C-alpha cells in the first residue's frame, strides 16, 4: 500500500437562526486560517436540515472554502438524491460524506432503494462515476443498532466495496478501539484511509447526551473526573484539552491518516487541540 497523506477536516452543522449563522461564519473564518483539507456540513435526520445544509454548503463553497456536504438516504428517494448530486456537481463540489442517516419518529422510510449507506454509495457512483470523492462512516465501538461487532464490520466493508474512497469514524475516547477496528478492517480487505473522528470536550452534560445517543463510550475514569468538576467550565475545558490532545497524539503516532474534528460550530476548542498538537497554523 502506498504512503497516504494525512487529511485534517472540521465538521459543522447547519445554523438554525440568524445569530447562529453569524457565529458559524466567525468560526469558519477562524478555522480556515489553519487551512484544513475540507469542512463537512451535516444533514439532519431524514433530511430535516436539507435546505440549511445546501445553503450553508453553497455559501462556504462560494467563499472559496473546500466543503463536503453530508448526504443521507433514509427518507430520500432517487429523484431527491439525484437533484442534490446535480446541485453540488454544477458548482464544482467534488467531495461527499455519504451516510445512511437517521429516521425521525413518525416519518415514512422513503424509497426501498435506499436502505443502507452502501446503497447510496452505489447510486452516487452509478450517477456520477468518479466525480465525487466519497467518505463514509465507521464505528470503532460498534454502531448502536448493529446486533454484533461482526455484523457492523461486514456493513462497513460493504460500504467500502460499493465505491467509497475513505471513512471517518464516530468520535471515541479509547484509542485501542480505533486501532483494533482498523486492524480488523485491513484483515477484511479494506485498505482505504480510516480517519478518526475527534470530539473536543467543553460541556460534560452535552457530551454525555451525545455519547449515549450515538453509542460512543466515555470511559468510567473520564466520566467520574468530569462529574467531579461540576459546573466549573474552565476546569472542564482544561481537562478536556489534555485528554483529547493526548488521544490525538497517540492516534497520529500509531499512523492514523489524519483527524476529523466535530467542532460543534465552535472554533476555539478545536484550535486549542490543533495548537497543542503542533499542527501547522
Instruction: Label the CATH architecture.
Output: Alpha-Beta Barrel
**Outline type:** globular
User: Strand tally, please?
Assistant: 8
Q: Which topology does CATH recognise? A: TIM Barrel
H/E series = EHEHEHEHEHEHEHHHEH
| Overall number of structural domains | 1
Instruction: Compute the average pLDDT.
Output: 92
How many strands, what sense, and barrel or not for the largest sheet? 8 strands, parallel, barrel
Low-confidence stretches: none
Summarize the structure.
This protein has 281 residues and is of the alpha/beta class.
Which terms summarize this structure?
TIM Barrel; 47% helix; 8 strands; 281 residues; eight-stranded parallel beta barrel; 10 helices; globular; 15% strand; single chain; alpha/beta
Amino acid at each position: 500500500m502506498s504512503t497516504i497523506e494525512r487529511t485534517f477536516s472540521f465538521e459543522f452543522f447547519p445554523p438554525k437562526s440568524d445569530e447562529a449563522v453569524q457565529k458559524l461564519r466567525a468560526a469558519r473564518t477562524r478555522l480556515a486560517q489553519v487551512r484544513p483539507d475540507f469542512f463537512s456540513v451535516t444533514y439532519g435526520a431524514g433530511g430535516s436540515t436539507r435546505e440549511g445544509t445546501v445553503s450553508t454548503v453553497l455559501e462556504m463553497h462560494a467563499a472559496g472554502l473546500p466543503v463536503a456536504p453530508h448526504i443521507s438516504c433514509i427518507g430520500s428517494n432517487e429523484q431527491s438524491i439525484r437533484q442534490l448530486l446535480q446541485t453540488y456537481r454544477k458548482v464544482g463540489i467534488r467531495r461527499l460524506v455519504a451516510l445512511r442517516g437517521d429516521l425521525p419518529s413518525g416519518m415514512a422510510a422513503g424509497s426501498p432503494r435506499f436502505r443502507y449507506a452502501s446503497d447510496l454509495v452505489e447510486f452516487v457512483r452509478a450517477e456520477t462515476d468518479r466525480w465525487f470523492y466519497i467518505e463514509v462512516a465507521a464505528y470503532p465501538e460498534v454502531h448502536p443498532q448493529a446486533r454484533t461487532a461482526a455484523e457492523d464490520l461486514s456493513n462497513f466493508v460493504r460500504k467500502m466495496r460499493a465505491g467509497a474512497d475513505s471513512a471517518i469514524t464516530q468520535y471515541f475516547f479509547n484509542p485501542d478501539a480505533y486501532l483494533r477496528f482498523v486492524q480488523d478492517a485491513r484483515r477484511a480487505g479494506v485498505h482505504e484511509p480510516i480517519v478518526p473522528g475527534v470530539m473536543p470536550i467543553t460541556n460534560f452534560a452535552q457530551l454525555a447526551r451525545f455519547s449515549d445517543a450515538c453509542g460512543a463510550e466515555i470511559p468510567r475514569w473520564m466520566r467520574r473526573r468530569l462529574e467531579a468538576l461540576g459546573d466549573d467550565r474552565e476546569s472542564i475545558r482544561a481537562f478536556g484539552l489534555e485528554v483529547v490532545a493526548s488521544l490525538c497524539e497517540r492516534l497520529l503516532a500509531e499512523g492514523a491518516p489524519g483527524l476529523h474534528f466535530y467542532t460543534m460550530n465552535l472554533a476555539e476548542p478545536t484550535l486549542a487541540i490543533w495548537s497543542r498538537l503542533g499542527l501547522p497554523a
